[in-house]
Amino acid sequence: MFETWGRVVYRRRRLVLAIAGIVLIFAALWGTGVFAKLQTAGGFVPATSQSQQEANLAARTFGRGSGDVVVLYSGKTAITTSPAVQAAVTRNLAALPHSRVESYATYWSTKSPQLVSANGRQTFAVIQLTGSTDAARIISFNGIKDQLSVPGVTTQVGGQIPTEAAINKQVTGDIGRAEGLSMPVLLILLLVIFGSLAAASLPLAIGGIGILGSFTALRLLTLATPVSIYSINITTILGLGLAIDYGLFMVGRFREELHRQDSVEAALARTVATAGRTVAVSGLTVAVALASLMLFPEVFLRSMGYGGVATVLVDMLAALTVLPALLAVLGPKVNALRIRRSVHRAPAAEASGSWYRLARSVMRRPVIYLAVIVIFLLTLGAPFLKVAWGGTDARVLPGASAPRQVTEALNQNFPGNATSPIESLLTFTGPVAGSPARGAELTSYVSSLTRIPGVTGSQVTGVKGDVARIATRYGADPLSAAARQIVRQARAITSPAGAHALIGGQTAQLVDELASVSAVLPWMALVMAAATFVLLFLAFGSVVLPIKAIVMNVLSLSATFGVVVWIFQEGHLSGLLGFTPTGTLDPAMPILMLAIIFGLSMDYEVFLLSRIRERYDLTGDNTAAIASGLQRTGGVITSAALLLVIVIGAFSASGITFIKLMGVGMIVALVVDATLVRIMLVPATMRLLGRANWWAPRPLRRLYARYGIGEPDG
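RESULT FIELD:
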């Protein structure tokens, strides 16, 4: 099938390129508008969770209660007792346009002690903006952000909408900067790898298609489902990285086949039949790993799954259509504009070379290599046993950003949880006002909340119809384990007879997120393992190799997660990398890393096993097949990993902490996987297994003979 497709593309190469050009123009004009369509906040909480139900009911009953903008005023003396400051702040807020500002509240309008810092030198105003969505409220904020300064006091602006706006600006800037930094470096490295400008430009061309394709896929998805803004970074990394991987593999194989075949058409057909088939299997494996994210109810993870799968499929299709068409047009000119003479030489014999000698060395002492590497990987993974889960707040921004500084000031200088209390909604069977019995029940419920250890006070903040709203304040950090325990105890309190309680707020959202992740994670792992097993069996006809590949990936992942905990939770290297450790990890990040790294690891596994299987089918010699397979793919795998490290490294310079975490984690995984695991651990393990590598029960062998997608003989 793949060989036939290669011949079809060769004969219709101009038509394929013309269609691709039209699609590319559309992607450049329409797909790049995706930034304005993405969801800028939230998405970490399941829609059916108790905290989300509480937020929905509160909004329907009392309107939007949370402030969009927090304006922090700081002075050298007691600020709220100054008539001049009061007049200046009040005058400034009253002058804001009504088309942008829906309402505002200050200490002077509410007399709330929660709005005054412990030392009396700071106070803040809470502003609600006009607009029905976060995107609309960001537009409103941009219209007033330059009008909020008050003479005579230090003014800083933070809150939900400024934080979202800052993250949006940071994400957009990071992408442009990362692409600007990585592209020249990638071109130089590809020139070194291929030795000619023509060959080096092809993976970059597919990378450009991958980026535009990822933008277009995400914008298409926004028409049907909310998509998180953070998906832009991840899909751009995947789009560029995988496209370069696939381009490297396909171009390298085509140059080999030009020396073996008697025509460009035959060389292209053989390339698509071998490397193209490997790209297809790899793409499907990566796509399945990312598709497992769709099992989660959180918009953040689901949108990453949607965008990731779409991006991988775009890369795979480009590598199987556009790239073969370009190779067909170029033919031997793929080696044009060379920077070294060796590009025209035939590839070295498969039974010689440095990678061949390394494989032979490993297989002479497989037990030693296996034991040392496994112990080393488990040691790297040990810190993950001490992982502590937390949430995401303004601390993901750089320390100099105003929204982060405002958040830190609110948490440190003001009475407990000035802007993030635990919120309870108590729904009765009838109106609360005018009913002494329900009033007494409400008072008793509030007293029960106040008696929870760690709570500093609870009070009713609103009553409307049959719904009462209660704010519970406490001394702990809103994302800490102590605060989560207060939420659990609040939910355990028995509601008054006939009444129903919902507990929400920032801390409750984290509790619900952790519960959701814990419930779905085993199913995600099962889906990934089962799908990987099936795909690798259909590709190689063995039940042993898929199990071995999954075990190798678990080792690689454990080492990666351990390093991430050591760096980002415990704070090692925080000064060098430029982030503020919080002592916790957001649970969504390891989940996302699990899907991406598992898929990328399988990418390299498929590349290596395809060549080993190809040689084994021809020789029947397991040891020789492993050595020659590594000789043919060792350079490709390490080169691909190096190029992807460059791409991810550029994105790891992001000012958003969890984007940096993702980048560093993926770099660790790539280095470990492309060196220790694929180059040493896999050959050692396959040498010990011997012919058992290729074993499958007789019924499954018949199934493989009928439906398998193995390499053709050649």
